[in-house]
Structures
1.
Amino acid sequence: MNGIMYERIGGYRVSDMRFVAAFDVDRRKVGLDLAKAVVTPPVAAVLHTDVEPTGVAVEPGPLFDGIGGNLIDVIEPHPTSLEATIDDVVDRLAAVRADVLVCLLPTGATDAVQAYARAAVRAGVPFVNATPEPVVHEPEIAAAFAASGVPLLGDDLRSHVGATTLHTALIELLQSRGLAVVNTYQLNVGGNTDFLNLADPKRAAGKLRTKRSALHAAGIDASTVSAGPNGFVKYLGDEKTCFIRIEAASVLDSNLVLDVRMQVEDSPNAAGVLVNAVRVAKVAAEHGHAGSVHDVCAFLFKNPREGATDSVGIRKFREYVDSVVQD
Ligand SMILES: NC(=O)c1ccc[n+]([C@@H]2O[C@H](COP(=O)([O-])OP(=O)(O)OC[C@H]3O[C@@H](n4cnc5c(N)ncnc54)[C@H](O)[C@@H]3O)[C@@H](O)[C@H]2O)c1
């Protein structure tokens, strides 16, 4: 299938993955079969395939700071989410014997994201933090995963071929030829709820931090680089467009300027990476790899504990996948 890097990771096909539980707080989604919830507004993702009922009803998750900023205007919390607790999440994960918990909460929901991570480690379930909120970078949480023998993957999923990956790959290309990056930016616009949420600078702070971290790992000083979500344009829906400019100094200080525009469907672009991350998390648990799995995180995430250039990140990821196949 296009965009799927590995038919099997540690023996697992994408088709071996199945949903056993789901948590949300949106009044329109709680109680629905997951197959219906994923096409219920304000979801903007385009349906590319028929989704059969899963038999899994969306349960109320504990709200914490999940709905804030601009999301308050479009998502009304289900009343049961105001009473739900992290203990409920721990009990549910244990009852369904979940193999992996994927966290796709809104950016800026630090308390909620960290609470789900704590629930996962208490239940002994590997955790994939797709959000920019600090989890592998939160020492107490990372230590709890390591001490409990549970794998932890994060922070902030890289899209499969997203703005960050394109940007860092281009920087590596120029640097490999000895050019110096003088100025650069990365602007992103889109129309889904992620972009609506990120239009609030207070909620978006973590995203700027993780994008700069990825650029820093690519080898440039990114401390003042503009790299973020830069606009919510509702009619674009799930279509995301990034504009990248790199100004570089080449031989005899001659100028090189790159202007790149890339347009992608945002949601499937995350799926290509998530099907790798979920299978790796499962296999890491089977192999007793506890805490942050450094060897895979630089490829899968924007802000891992140990960052790397694109070429080093993908090499380490492939070596890890090859090593678990051989075991
Ligand atoms: N291409 C991508 O989609 C992509 C790539 C990389 C990172 N991410 C990150 O993944 C995260 C999710 O992105 P998205 O596009 O799916 O966002 P989204 O806005 O579509 O979905 C967020 C969901 O979280 C729910 N929620 C809020 N608080 C909750 C709580 N306390 N418990 C349970 N559910 C809660 C919301 O109701 C909503 O359904 C964001 O942090 C985003 O930056 C997405």
Note: The chain has two domains: 14-158+268-326, 163-265.
2.
Amino acid sequence: MVMGILIVPSCYNDNYQDLYPSAPCDTTQVTYSVDVWPVLKAQCTGCHSGDSPGGNVALENYNDVVIVAKNGKLVGSVRHNPGYSPMPKDGAKLSSCKINKIEKWVNDGTPNN
Ligand code: HEC
């Protein structure tokens, strides 16, 4: 008797870019609410909120995020560019798709959309 093995990825869409980094990354429709904030909330606010946020950089809301977006530190740190502290600190680098989307949002002028 042959037992079938059925593999059902539970979060297929969430992990798609991580599993297949060469998959197309759609940066044409980047918005703060869908592409930027959920990533920062999940990966960054643990250290960047509260009374003494990491590096004195708060990332608790849109206005906070715009400050580091405009001064270049947001993209510099998630891209691990020289001269910036690599973020997330002590964690895995964000997928290149997530980084590209964040950078696109910054280049679009940080719309609150
Ligand atoms: C484990 C805690 C932790 C996490 C998670 C974390 N940070 Fe940081 N972050 C720090 C600390 C601490 C500093 C101060 C600099 C240092 O110690 O490297 C810092 C500094 C920064 C800076 C200033 C960098 C510079 O070169 O001046 C930015 C921007 C930043 N973080 C953004 C982020 C973003 C965006 C994320 C999520 C992708 C993130 N951080 C995740 C702890 C963290």
Note: The two ends are 55 Å apart (CA to CA).
